[in-house]
Structures are given as C-alpha cells and as structure tokens.
Amino acid sequence: MIRGYLLLLSFLLSFVWSLPLIKVNEQETFKPTTPIFCSKNLNCPEEWPCCSPYGECGSGPTCVGGCDPRYSYEDDSCIPLPVLMYPFNVVFHHDFVSNKFKFGSQNNARYPTENENVNQMTPNDNSLKNTPLEAAMHQKRFIHHSKFLITKSDRKAEEMLYNYNFVYSGNTNIDDDTGEILLTMPKHSTGSLIASTQEFLYGKATVSLKTARSQGVVTAIVLMSQVGDEIDFEFLGSQRFDAQTNWYYQTELDYTRMQKQPIYTDSYENYHTYGFDWNEERIIWLIDGRPVRTLFKRDTWDPVTHNYKYPQTPARLEIAIWPGGDADNHPGTIEWAGGPIDWENSPDILQYGQFYARVKEIHIEPKQNEHFNEIYKCITRKSYQRNFDITELLRTTCSYDHYVEPKFSERSLQWHCDYTPRVKSLRDSGSTTQSRRSRFFKKRYPSSLPLKKSQIQAFTNDSETGNSNKNITRLEAILYDRKRLLDFSKIGLVNDKNNSNDKLNFTKSQILQKILQKRDGTDITNSASQL
What we know:
Layout: H1 5-18, E1 50-51, E2 57-58, E3 81-82, E4 90-93, H2 132-139, E5 142-144, H3 154-163, E6 166-170, E7 172-174, E8 181-186, E9 192-196, E10 203-210, E11 217-225, E12 230-236, E13 242-248, E14 259-262, E15 272-278, E16 282-287, E17 290-296, E18 301-302, E19 307-308, E20 315-323, H4 331-336, H5 347-352, E21 354-366, H6 372-383, E22 397-400, E23 413-416, H7 439-444, H8 453-463, H9 468-478, H10 508-519
Parallel strand pairs: 5-6
Antiparallel strand pairs: 1-2, 3-22, 4-21, 6-9, 7-8, 8-21, 9-20, 10-15, 10-21, 11-12, 11-20, 12-13, 13-14, 15-16, 16-17, 18-19, 22-23
C-alpha cells in the first residue's frame, strides 16, 4: 500500500503552496507564480533560492522553517535555525491564556482565518498582531509562518525568538471554551499546520490531542528535519482505534517501515498523548506513556552505503490535518487514507462546516547531546570569561556545511552561539541578509565559510585563463576543514604556496577533482604529477 512520507509530501506540496499569497505589494510574494521544483537532481535558481521541505523553491519564509539546504541555491540560502538546548524546554497548555470566542457555530464560532484576511496580513515589523486571530495566537506564543524572522532588524528578530514557540499556517484557530488550538479543514481546503520555531537534536516530544474523524481525513504528528529525517504518527479519520508509526532517513521512501499500534479508546472522542523519545541510539514511540514501538540505530546499518540510516539531524515538531482523500490526490493516497472525503455530508461538515483536530498540550524536552561542549566553549570564549550564563543557550543556532561532511549527517552541523537568524524581506534569503554572525565561528574558524557553487564556477573558469594562483589564495581563505586549513601545496595544485611567481595553470576538471577529493577525505599526496 502506498503511504508514508510521499503521502504527507503530496499534501504539503498542495497545502503550503496553495495558500493565498501573503502580499507586500501587488507584485512581490515569496514564491513564483509558476511553481519551480527542487530535488537531488535540480537545485533552486538564484531568484528563488530556497527549497521548501516539500520540494518547491521560494524566498523569505521558505528560507526559515524547514528550508532544505541540500537542494537550495547555496548552502547559506537557508538561514541557520534556532535550536532548543537542554535544560530549556517548550510547553503549550490549553488554559495558559483565555481568548474570548466560542467554537460551535459555523457563522461566528471562530476568528477569521488567513484565507479570509489575506490582504490585511502584511509581514512588516510593526504588524505582528494585526488581526484578531493573530492577537489571540500571539498570547499563546504562536506567530504566522510568513512573519517569523522576516525583519530588517536583529533586535526584532531576537524578540521573535524569545516571544514565539510555534508558527502556524492554513486554517489554524483557537477554541475559547477550552483554549485549545484547532487544526481545521473547511470544505475543499488543504488543512492546517503548526510547527515549533526551534529544532532540537534528541529528546522527548509529546502531544495531547483529539484527532480528526471521517473517511479520507488525516491527522499527523511529525518530527521533521531540514534534510528529511522524519519520525511520525499518522491517524486516519476512518480508523480511530489505530495509530500508524513510521520513520525515514533523508527523505528516502521505504514503504516497509510503517507499523500500526492500537489506541484503546476512540481518538476523536478522547484525548490521548502521543510521544517520541529519541536519542543517539534508539527511538521509542509512546501512546499515553506506554511504549508501543522501538527502533535501534544498530538495526539501520546499510552495508551498501556504509552508514546508519537513522534520524540524526535537528528536527522541528509539526502537527497537521490534511485531506488524504481529496479527489485531486493520487489514487494510492486516497486508498491509503480510507477513501474519498465526503465534503458535503460528513458529520463535522454538517455540524461545524469543517473537519478539525484539537491540540490540548505540547511538551518538547531536549536531551543534552554531544555538541553541548562545543556550544559551551563558544559561549565562554565569546564572553572572554569562564562564567557561564545559561540563558546564552537560548541563542544557539545551527546550519549545515556539506564541505565538512557531504552527506548532510550530524557531522555536517555547524553550531553558532551569537548569530541572530533573520531574512530581511519576503524576497530575500539567508545569503542576501547580512545579520550578525557568530563571533566564535569567526574566531575559531576564521576562513570557514563554505565554498559556494558560484565560487567554484568562477574559480575554475579563471583557472583556465591563467589566474589560478590568485584564486588558490582565495580558496584557501574560503575552504577550511575543522582539523586543518586546506593547503593547496599538499594536494598538487602548486609546488609552493608562498611562491608568487608560480604560474601553473589547471583545467576546470582537474581543479574540481582535487577539491572533491579533499572534501570527501581521499588521501592526497603533495605530488604535482598527480594532476
């Protein structure tokens, strides 16, 4: 049976990118009019540099939550994302704040959603709460995804990091009777999504909710990383006594891993708590505190690729409702979801005008991972003292550098302790926004910026016209390994890097071969004859 990541992917492709465009003016949006797709075979173009988690190119918000560095225009098109570090945690509880409206009537039971107010929603720095829904969500530390970290100001970006724990999109709403977050799906819509603003690398995440009901309606709880590592629960509205558990490594589709787990009472009528307990060696899925499945890292070894295909990169928590049984979906998706959705006569459509799931509580509790010491050194070195202010951990961000480790595994993570992540407008990206960089990153790795695709092209083109020495110096200032600076005199490109009269010329293919050999860890001697 076709299911799993491909199904969620097919929904989210239509969901996120079919939302009404959030406008700065009539011409300017954060996605192209005609979708541009990104994949392992095709990176995003410079104009729309960021690859969304769902395989489409964009800018602005696309470069923030979930941006996939593998298929974006450059490594730094995606901004470094905030990471929740031990001992801090994130908690949402339904009764933290009361907001004054009642769920139950089709006409006035909910705040107007973004689909009804798109022209009022302008993502400037002074309008984070310019609709009743946004004001209510703000009190619960939620912000619309199109506004999070979209600002020209470091200070305002820092305020967002401290003030908001979650982003929302689609038809998300609030029930004032209970204070719960409502993930709603009106007739022929694409559903709703909430996600944590911070990723975490290993820890516990639990969600207490009531799932949606009816044939073809799917509720999902997912840990999703930027590079496609995934751990999930999925619930079919027509099978309310079962939960489907699954996991993926870097978006590799494997339909053999799904397992069904029993839920002892109706998941629509009753609250249940679903959780993940994830560390370096195993993942445990839990229902109401009861372990229902365990995956060990040792069991994910792939003898062909010689690596563990185990989720091992920082992930954010996502909770969604989506129309698996929509008529526009693939027939296999509709079959897996339990059949086509009845948009006219389903009980919740008749009574409320929408399908919905209720989110009562969310807890995210990271574990202390092996990178803590690196971040600790960063913070103490930045402050030039041994005293450790634990609140500095709230500034932790991370990014990926495929020149350190080309497989985008945990080893490719770059940690920052004094970087304010932001994108200055809807049409900008991480590479076009000059925000404050990590002092530690500069001090410890003064030449550690990754070599961009455009720089490789310029470097290799110049080398064919006899300008290789100038560019070798520039490459030495760009390429920097964690262990030692890339010394071109040791890989056969020059005999003496201090000899300014050395006029060796090399072809594009020869230089690229040497760069790739060095990047991939191939043993290279200092013999120029290797060329």
